[in-house]
Each structure stands twice: as structure tokens, then as C-alpha cells.
Amino acid sequence: MHDLVSRAIEKFLTEQSVSLEDRAGTLPPGQLLHDAARNLDKPVDELAEDLGAWLVQQEEIWRLLRFCGRDFLDFLLRLEELPDRIRLITDDVDIPEIGLSRGDDGLLWVTFTDGSPIWTSLLAGLLRAMADDYGTLCVIFRQDGGLCIDVSDLAFAAARTFHLSARGQGR
């Protein structure tokens, strides 16, 4: 079940020039992240957030995510569908269900059911990278059990061009 996640973490750590132990392939994903964070002298939540941002840079994952919304707000409003979209591709990832709510103050709250704090950090990094991709100015911060998102400007910068088909399109 953890093979796909472990391979992605190993690729991320290798691209970040983190030396991996010979037994890295046998470690569960959470342990792999904790060991790498300890070796980097970096909090594991920061490393998980970096991993989330790195995932957006992977073409296949980026396409899956960009297909979820025409702008960042639309993307956020469809965030609850993300676990099911991931399950369409692989059942190797045990992603918790995602809940989204909007407070009276206009802030968006993202929560997880039965998720570890690593999921919160990973999603924070992923959402920050997607906000940049959409050209949106926002503040995303972790709270107990989830994330708080304050969208200031949906059209702060030009969004990266997205075409449904990857054929003939440069990224």
C-alpha cells in the first residue's frame, strides 16, 4: 500500500540532495519523512509542506490538480473531491476525507477526517503551490486539525496556462 507514496518521497528527497539510507525503501512513508527531517535538522511538518509543493511540480499530478478548477477558488471548492480523484488513479494512497467550510468572515477552513498532521502540512504546501499556479494571492496557515485559507486576490498574477491535453503543449 505504501510503495507509491514511498517512491514519491524517495524521489523528492533525492531531488533535494538528501542522502537516503540503504533501508529507505523498506521504511513506511511516515518514518522515511521523520528520518529525513531529522537528518536535515528540519521539522517534519516543514519537510512535508515542501513535499506538497514538489508534488505540484510533477506533470501528471499538476494536470490532475489543474483539472479540478478554472481558478483557485473553484479548485478549493472542489477540494473535497480530491481523495476520490486520487482513488481513480491508485488505491495505494490512504488519503483522509477532506472537508471544506467557509466562516462568516469569508475564511475557508479545510479539515481532515482521521488524518495525520503530516497530511495537513502536505496539503498546505500543495495549496500554496496551486495558489501560485493560479496567480492567486492568499494566506494559508495550519490550525489544529486543518488549514485556514484567506484569499485576498484571485487575479493577483497571471495564471499558468493549462490545456486539457498535454500533447503539443509546453508547460
TrEMBL record:
Record-linked Gene3D superfamilies: H-NOX domain
Heme NO-binding domain boundaries: 31-135
Pfam families the UniProt entry points to: HNOB (PF07700)
Signal peptide span: none
UniProt protein name: Heme NO-binding domain-containing protein
Species the sequence originates in: Paracoccus acridae
